[in-house]
Amino acid sequence: MPTVTSADGTRIAYERGGSGPALVLVDGAMCYRAGGPMRPLAAQLTEHFTVYAYDRRGRGESGDTLPYAPEREVEDLHALVDAAGGDAYLCGISSGAALVMLASSRARAIVLYEPPLHATHDDDYTKQLTELLDEGRKGDAVALFMAKVGMPAEVVAGFRASPGWAPLEAIGHTLAYDDAVLRHWRPAAVRTLVVSGGASPQGLRDGARIAAGAVPGARERVLDGQTHDVDPAALAPVLVEFLLAGDR
């Protein structure tokens, strides 16, 4: 598995496929290459781009050098752009979209899918999350996050008893990383498309509107029938149309 070395020495694992201009995909909370939407999305895009999918620090096969700061994740992403030849598009989903905004100075153009900017300063959540992680209770931190995003308690309990819980608990500490990224987001200054799902909760659609309103000239697109768990087959053509149109 290829890796890049970030500015603080952390090894960041990635995979690459396809051909064409470089496109780096950035996961949101609780996702990594082996457990998230980016591999299926990459498969939809390799006809048009050289696609890079990676494990954010603390997840999958990537390292995790402490102390954490959002700037370290920006450096990770910039190291991947360097590996791609120094010139790349960026696409992020959920909190990964907020990270893309932070790292956009090295991007040709960016696509943001539902950055949850409507919930960037939930002090109660941050306090509870910090306390749980300080006590080493990563499983409880994951449960807290699931409750925050609207998952019913009985569904969380059932999921917690399933085999799929252990991989999530293993990266539960990175929920603090996503929370920090969302608290430190800033407007991008490159060509930007903000996408949301027409069937997503109002809060997430509001977050997308906040992102679009913060970037002069940003374009907005709503995908009918889609939710936060967007279908890669629905999102990919929108990326292709927007990103490649800027090169024509």
TrEMBL record:
**Residue ranges of coiled coil:** none
Sorted alphabetically, the keyword list is: Hydrolase
InterPro entries, from UniProt? AB_hydrolase, AB_hydrolase_1, AB_hydrolase_fold
Q: Does the keyword Hydrolase apply?
A: yes
Name the source's superkingdom.
Bacteria
- Asked if Ribosomal protein is a keyword of the record, the answer is no
Q: Name one Pfam family in it.
A: Abhydrolase_6
Start and end residues of each AB hydrolase-1 domain = 31-235
* Single GO MF annotation: hydrolase activity
Classification via PANTHER family: AB HYDROLASE-1 DOMAIN-CONTAINING PROTEIN, HYDROLASE, ALPHA/BETA FOLD FAMILY PROTEIN
The name this protein goes by in its record: Alpha/beta hydrolase
| Organism name | Dactylosporangium sucinum
